[in-house]
Amino acid sequence: MSKFLKLTAFMVLAILLLAACNGGGNDNNDSANDSANDPETTEESFGDGEIELVFWEFGNTGYDVLIEEYVAQNPHISINLQNADMNDVHDNLFTSISAGSGAPDIAMVEEAQIERYRNAEDAFHNLFDLGAADVEDNFLDWVFQNGGNADGTFQFGLPTDIGPTVMFYRTDVFEEAGFDSSPEAVNELVNTWEDYEAVAREIYEETGKLMTDAGELVFNARRDQATQQYFNEDDELIIDDHPQIREAYDYVANLFDEGLVGDIPLWTPEWFAGMEEGTYATMLAPAWMQGQIKDNSPEEGIWSITTMPEGAGNWGGSYLTVPSESEHAEEAYNFIEWLTAPEQQLEAFLNYGLFPSSPQVYDMPEFMDYEDEYFGGIATAQVFSEAAQSVIPVYKGRLYYPVDEELKEAIDNMSAGSDPDEEWDAAVSRIERILQR
Amino acid sequence: MKKTKKNNRLTDKKRTAVAAYLFISPFFILFAIFGLFPMLFSFYLSFFRWDGLDPMTFNGLNNFRFIFSDPIFYSSIKNTFLIGLLGTLPQILVSMVIAFALNSTLIRFRNVFRTLIFLPYITSIVAVAIIFGLVFNNQPFGFANYILSLFDVGPIRWGAEYWPVKFAIATMVFWRWVGYNTIIFLAGMQSIPRELYEAAKIDGATIMQQLRLITLPMLKPIVMFVVFTATIGSLQLFTEPLIFLGRGFREEGITVVAYLWRDAFVYNTFGTASAAAIVLFVIIISLTALNLGISSLIGRTKKSKVS
């Protein structure tokens, strides 16, 4: 008996320890990107209606609150909400549509991942058949179009949120370096990428602090501003044919070389922890990153927001799709139409900072008057909506993420001092081999 | 009369046979669905180009031609063996020593230690990989780098450099499996009769001599088993590099299974993934044959010694 007790005690101890580790390190999922670190799936059911809709989502959407509202209004519907890691949701969706069974009634698909499913029009309901044409005007044109096929006859999904990119910055570091830290002043100070580099140098000289701790984010910021990225519309690799991506890459190489940016990998515990430490000045990131910053650096008035040098890009955001396996396509569509309607998008923004894909929200008084005490009481919504409206849509291609991954490896290597040109060539040849498969 | 009786007995026999097959059928049915069919299907797939959604197109031997011309595929094979060696060899030696210690009557709280040493095995690989990811952090403030800095070494980029990547992954494998193998060895040691040790002690043998001359030879079959499973296990290494390095892996740390998984589920090229799986299959088969050959050779020499 005592042996059994001891064993039980150890098991309990071990489980507690593991749970503690897990909970502390990795509850920081976000709406548009995530590491492969969190394999957990949570499942929650709402309502007790006869028609059950299974809904796969990822990230912190806060949709549970909205779903409760919906099932209260529509008692014949119940919704089973399953949340998992972003990559897992997409892999599982891919596997189930490839196998022809197991897909949910509603699947959330990330903006760049939607490319993976473009060849599979028969695996999804064409939302135009279900009435999507009527709500088309609710959304920003480029966002809506990206959720459809090239000639605009097939609509995979309705857009939920988007990720207009801005510059988050730490007022304390800017002040320490002797700058005015108001959003207007910083915007003027860091108006171009040249300014960004010059300011980085000055901050480093004055305070010894870095401009940002993740050079990768500088690359992403410039990548998302590019009008052409990795592929053209015929899915041919074009990173060597137009200068924008290479410029972004060389720009980061130069910052590494001067020691002005750090090389902390994104989504790691040390990266999250760095948000509070005040060892760097800026973070170039999409709107949905504000949740991460708030969670990790709770003190108000330290972080602020201004527009990105040389205009915004878009990183992330999602669509809600209805796989054709769904037997309740109509109900599923009605639900996603409701969920992506301007009123609900406003609520999702106010609750979880999901930035609306509907420009009608941008004119709503609650949205315009929304001032975020956390960011020094500025009207953050306006900064973001300005960014959102200036975004130029860009074609991403089916192998967007694998290509991005190889370039990130090159960036990681050159942060450790290897030659940027050699790393670029190595990455391009790795990418070419991926394309040959 | 006699005849019918005999017939009855035969049908009885048959009936038991049917019942027996029925009893073992769940395994075979499940194996056929989840083991055999996917296996055969990937043989078939390895001759096709398939992105998982569009119809398959016949590709002849091009998938094999491609992976054999891909330097990263060779790296993945090399990595698998290097990490396997780094992870399993020390592990077998260490777990044998620990098992011997736990088996000896000199240690107090043996049950406590037995449980403790086995605990890593029941932890989730993902949790292990995340924690080791913190230990083997690229940054100077990572735990391993901090320890090294006390000796004026480093910082080492554990997630990117050739040997450090392998060392870090091998350490995870070591940590997780050493307890499992210890328990296997311990079970083997407990089946060795006490009298042998007592006789040895009376003859004045030291602990090292006991280990070398009694424990090791008597453990031979257990050692074979552990080497077998460890070899196959390390050839299938996947989760640790995935969590430690992320979905892109890196040439420095990609294993064969990681390579084929990435082809299938990141690049969605199921043809080359299946071709890589076939190559892995051939490697595992030949290694197992080699293992069997060696063990039967050892068995034979032992027999000839006895006679």
UniProtKB/TrEMBL annotation, chain A:
<dbReference type="InterPro" id="IPR050490">
    <property type="entry name" value="Bact_solute-bd_prot1"/>
</dbReference>
<protein>
    <submittedName>
        <fullName>ABC transporter substrate-binding protein</fullName>
    </submittedName>
</protein>
<keyword id="KW-0732">Signal</keyword>
<dbReference type="InterPro" id="IPR006059">
    <property type="entry name" value="SBP"/>
</dbReference>
<dbReference type="Pfam" id="PF13416">
    <property type="entry name" value="SBP_bac_8"/>
</dbReference>
<feature type="signal peptide">
    <location>
        <begin position="1"/>
        <end position="19"/>
    </location>
</feature>
Automatic annotation (TrEMBL), chain B:
<feature type="domain" description="ABC transmembrane type-1">
    <location>
        <begin position="77"/>
        <end position="291"/>
    </location>
</feature>
<feature type="transmembrane region" description="Helical">
    <location>
        <begin position="21"/>
        <end position="47"/>
    </location>
</feature>
<dbReference type="InterPro" id="IPR000515">
    <property type="entry name" value="MetI-like"/>
</dbReference>
<feature type="transmembrane region" description="Helical">
    <location>
        <begin position="265"/>
        <end position="294"/>
    </location>
</feature>
<dbReference type="GO" id="GO:0055085">
    <property type="term" value="P:transmembrane transport"/>
</dbReference>
<feature type="transmembrane region" description="Helical">
    <location>
        <begin position="81"/>
        <end position="103"/>
    </location>
</feature>
<feature type="transmembrane region" description="Helical">
    <location>
        <begin position="115"/>
        <end position="136"/>
    </location>
</feature>
<dbReference type="InterPro" id="IPR035906">
    <property type="entry name" value="MetI-like_sf"/>
</dbReference>
<feature type="transmembrane region" description="Helical">
    <location>
        <begin position="167"/>
        <end position="187"/>
    </location>
</feature>
<keyword id="KW-0812">Transmembrane</keyword>
<dbReference type="InterPro" id="IPR051393">
    <property type="entry name" value="ABC_transporter_permease"/>
</dbReference>
<comment type="similarity">
    <text>Belongs to the binding-protein-dependent transport system permease family.</text>
</comment>
<protein>
    <submittedName>
        <fullName>Sugar ABC transporter permease</fullName>
    </submittedName>
</protein>
<keyword id="KW-1003">Cell membrane</keyword>
<dbReference type="GO" id="GO:0005886">
    <property type="term" value="C:plasma membrane"/>
</dbReference>
<keyword id="KW-0472">Membrane</keyword>
<keyword id="KW-1133">Transmembrane helix</keyword>
<keyword id="KW-0813">Transport</keyword>
<dbReference type="Pfam" id="PF00528">
    <property type="entry name" value="BPD_transp_1"/>
</dbReference>
